[in-house]
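Problem: given the chain below (374 residues), write out its structure.
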Amino acid sequence: MSLTLEAVLAARNVDVSLHVEPGETVAVMGPNGAGKSSVVQSLAGLLKPDSGRAVLDGTTLFELSGAGPGRWLPPHARGVGVLAQEPLLFPHLNVLDNVAFGPRSRGASRRESREAARRWLGEVDAVELARRMPAELSGGQAQRVALARALATEPSLLLLDEPMAALDVNSTPFLRSLLKRVLAGRRAIIVTHDVLDALMLADRIIVMEGGRIVESGPTAAVLAHPRSSFAASLAGLNVLTGTLSGTTLMMSDGGRVAGQPAAGPGGTPVGDGFAGLHTQGLAAEAPRAEGGPEGMAAFPPSAVSVFLAPPAGSPRNCFAVVVDQLEPQGGHIRVRAGALAADVSPAAVAELGLAPGAEVFFVVKAAEVRLYPA
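Solution.
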């Protein structure tokens, strides 16, 4: 028994197909407008795709072909629980009755539904809130109650659409730890922008861009060897794209990046061709490889050195850049320039006179660059 979804929403340019096993928590990530919430809303019954099919443990949630009405199970009959950004508690019911609403609407007696509500309030450490009205709750408290309400119907699938996006920095860690506990062994899909949510809560990451799933895999593997621009940005890597020719990546603007083929079945990416790329010490006659396979070159900001002029010496990649901003990060400064970043010491920033608008060269040795097929 599992969850399968195939859905096309033409107006949102979404075309997805995914599979979730029992007991598996999947994080759906991607930039704004990627189609993440469309996936959740389609499964919850809040958004009807143009075509597609969704089956949860043998129950067809919808089956649509575009010709005729098809099959469409209403939201309350799907066995799906939803936790959104906002708690959306019933303002006229106290906390206990908010949580009891689900079991009660499914036919449980008043006593049974309240017993279930108390049990789930205990699961989210909110028993003491039972008699309060929603207006008396903090944001974090209200979201814990909303989680209890979503779980009280014993859903076969729990959908969480950026559940911590509206919380303050003090409430988020507690709710994240709570979710880690209650999601253990439970099938769930969580839409999030926070890589920490994926690391702590998800068994697998799905990355969406432009309404499509561009990569999927175990959380640790995707972050260690990302194959999409968004995943690479989460992992904090510099990534350039182009076509592969041996140990060289040929970019669309004619630039070349030397590197080493990545070991094992991984990958890495981000960014477009970078104008102003120079390569020191590469063979001038290297072919353009216009027909070569698509690939990526990836390297961490810590591998990048910053110079005021192109250095001579061993084979290395040299990027002519203009500094955009400087970001203090612990004991170093992250220097951002377009799609690239370098981590340097505060002393180096002072010595080089780095500031927004400065024209410098980012340099990385070929041995520090990993090349991957797209």
